[in-house]
Write a structure and sequence with these properties.
The chain has eight helices and 46 strands. It binds copper (II) ion.
Length: about 650
């Protein structure tokens, strides 16, 4: 078994030309496949039919743009929540109600790449109210309401290229943060040579204020920073709760062949930002207002239709001497993750090209600031002396450490990409105490509560990049895997290995008790303020206004009203406003119509959703309920007659009698 693993690793390492280096590292620390006795493992993940899992797991979708929900420890798949990509399964991004959520200053964007979900927090603990997630490509942050498990809001980030260091919340959900992975010209739409990078390009760190009652986002301010790549971020907690931390790489300011050119320096930086101080400066009039164009999309009231609020300005804070709110901590080498331990004291970086895991001390950082232990400045930002802030360097961490979470019992767990393993190390001695293989090439890892003040640290999920031989082969591309580990004992034990959806980058888990009792079972019909809702099924009707035809349609088991429609003409734009009048949990109806250049629309109990249809040919068009809703579901159908553009067939609708 071990040889097989070594061969797999060897093939993975060839691609990065690191076999020689890896050989040295592995010589000192042979890792091994360690799986708990299969009977014990099965018992630990077994959740009997009809029983519920103890945790919700939320996995980002990566290039699917969505968020998937899993039960842990059984690792049962529960649901995909569509966020940044159109979803034909539910009609998200296809229905008229949800299309506005995907509007941006670049127009309608049907896809994105979602990376880091983060659950809202109260006093440094996940509170289960909302989950935020970032879009990496066309920079945005979304808010998902954990009452309905639906995306309720999307905010575009101006002046940002690649919103990767996002969307992490502060310990009382005061702010959610974002940052530019790719620096770009700050001035909107500026057309300049790429060679002008160092002069014209800048980074921007975004501070999005959250409404404490509703979780709604507001772009409060941005901080203009040097043209590096800003990779990941995290908020502090407890003593460091007023601070957020971002990793940088490419402090070399390269704009081509970054693979070589952005790896020259031994150290890059962690940017430490006192968000409370920065916010206070902004309140007191610091910074300037700059032109920007960005969309804020959300639902207003109970209309159930997302709206677009187009913003034209953003407040920008530029570090100036003596302002005291941003510092750089030198950190080896091209650091990726930055993670803060439960006490808020340790700032751990994952230097993907570093030979150690550097650990900074927050209290030493504050001392260094007070005693001005600076090692120069860059664009008015003080660089702190490395020796002044560093408290430990974890030796022999494997090759390519990336991300760290914590168990609250004094240990940290770091994912290590190239040597494809997880290392457990002590926050007391900074020594590795355990290590276990990951299958294969691990990115993020996640511990239940592992980023909070009080981890419950029962389970750990490793999110790996390649499956290769781990499951039955499904063609040249296998789905990305996740592994579930038991970390309740001294040694990490592998329990389960399962394929996921999209490419999960980060995941979060929360005890189910914090969510499940608040989950809505229906939308209350009496709260439905949709302007085209059908409040009583008897009110079903069709209204024509020129070429626009609105069908006010209702569904109950097992029919639509109306179900026979005539008088539609080629050239009409037809809106089916379908209200699901059911008031019973999980009784969903849908509608699809032949030839519609659109997805079906699924409608939850008490909801109204709109399917747009532009018939191009005359004929008889069947439509039907797409969700198996009852014993007579196959009878739940109807017909639309489409006549020529100049036809004088009268507009009629009916249901019942033959
Ligand atoms: Cu139905």
């Amino acid at each position: 078994m071990k040889n097989q693993k070594s061969n797999k690793l060897r093939s993975l390492l060839v691609g990065v030309g690191l076999i020689a280096v890896a050989g040295l590292i592995f010589a000192g620390c042979p890792s091994q496949q360690r799986v708990m006795d299969s009977g014990d493992a099965a018992q630990k993940v077994y959740v009997a039919p009809g029983e519920h899992d103890e945790y919700y797991g939320f996995f980002s979708g990566g290039y699917s743009g969505q968020l998937s929900v899993w039960g842990l420890p059984s690792s049962r798949f529960l649901k995909v929540i569509p966020v940044f990509s159109q979803d034909p399964e539910t009609g998200y991004g296809y229905s008229e109600e949800t299309k506005p959520l995907l509007q941006t200053s670049y127009g309608f964007i049907p896809w994105d790449d979602s990376h880091h979900p983060h659950i809202s927090q109260t006093d440094g603990n996940a509170d289960g109210r909302w989950i935020y997630i970032n879009a990496n490509n066309t920079p945005r942050i979304a808010r998902i309401d954990l009452k309905t498990f639906e995306t309720k809001e999307i905010l575009e980030l101006p002046n940002t290229g690649g919103n990767h260091a996002s969307s992490f919340v502060t310990e009382n959900s005061e702010y959610v943060i974002g940052a530019t992975r790719f620096s770009i010209p700050y001035e909107m739409d500026l057309d300049v040579p790429i060679d002008s990078y160092s002069d014209e390009f800048r980074g921007a760190l975004s501070f999005i204020e959250l409404d404490p009652e509703t979780g709604m986002m507001n772009m409060d301010f941005q901080i203009l920073v040097p043209p590096y790549n800003y990779d990941l971020g995290r908020a502090g907690k407890g003593p460091s709760g007023d601070w957020v931390f971002f990793t940088t790489y490419n402090t070399e300011e390269a704009h081509t062949m970054l693979e070589v050119n952005a790896s020259r320096y031994d150290k890059d930086y962690i940017a430490a930002v006192n968000w409370r101080k920065a916010a206070e400066l902004v309140r007191n009039g610091a910074g300037e207002t700059m032109d920007a164009e960005y969309y804020h999309n959300y639902y207003e009231g109970n209309q159930g239709i997302a709206i677009n609020d187009v913003k034209n300005q953003v407040t920008v804070l530029t570090p100036e001497d003596g302002q005291d709110f941003i510092y750089f901590l030198p950190t080896p080498k091209s650091p990726h993750g930055v993670d803060i331990d439960p006490t808020g004291e340790y700032i751990v970086a994952g230097g993907k090209l570093a030979t150690v895991i550097p650990v900074h001390s927050f209290s030493q950082m504050i001392d260094a600031i007070e005693n001005e232990r600076f090692d120069g400045h860059v664009e008015n930002i003080p660089i702190l002396d490395y020796d002044a802030t560093i408290v430990g360097e974890v030796e022999n961490p494997g090759l390519g450490p990336l991300h760290t979470e914590f168990d609250g019992r004094g240990y940290a767990y770091t994912s290590v990409y190239i040597s494809s393993e997880i290392v457990k190390w002590s926050l007391d001695t900074f020594e590795v105490v355990d290590r276990i293989d990951a299958y294969y090439s691990i990115g993020h890892l996640m511990i239940t509560g592992g980023d909070t003040k009080n981890p419950d640290a029962r389970y750990m999920i490793g999110l790996t990049k390649t499956a290769k031989d781990r499951y039955l082969p499904t063609g040249p591309k296998q789905n990305h895997p996740a592994q579930l580990y038991d970390i309740s004992g001294d040694r990490m034990e592998l329990l389960l290995d399962f394929p996921t959806i999209g490419e999960p980058h980060y995941a979060q888990a929360i005890h189910a008790d914090l969510i499940k009792d608040n989950v809505a079972q229906i939308y209350e019909m009496e709260d439905n303020d949709h302007p085209h809702a059908l409040r009583r099924i008897a009110d079903n009707r069709i209204e024509r206004d020129g070429d626009v035809v609105r069908v006010y349609m209702g569904s109950v088991r097992s029919h639509f009203r109306p179900d026979n429609i005539e008088g539609i003409r080629v050239g009409d734009t037809v809106y089916f406003h379908l209200t699901n009048l059911e008031q019973e949990w999980d009784v969903v109806h849908g509608i699809g119509i032949k030839g519609a250049n659109n997805a079906e629309i699924l409608v939850a109990p008490g909801q109204t959703k709109t399917l747009k249809w532009e018939p191009t040919r005359t004929g008889i068009y069947p439509f039907y309920c797409t969700a198996f809703c009852s014993a007579l579901h196959q009878e739940m159908q109807g017909y639309v007659r489409v006549s020529a553009a100049d036809s004088d067939v009268e507009l009629t609708w009916r249901t019942g009698t033959n």
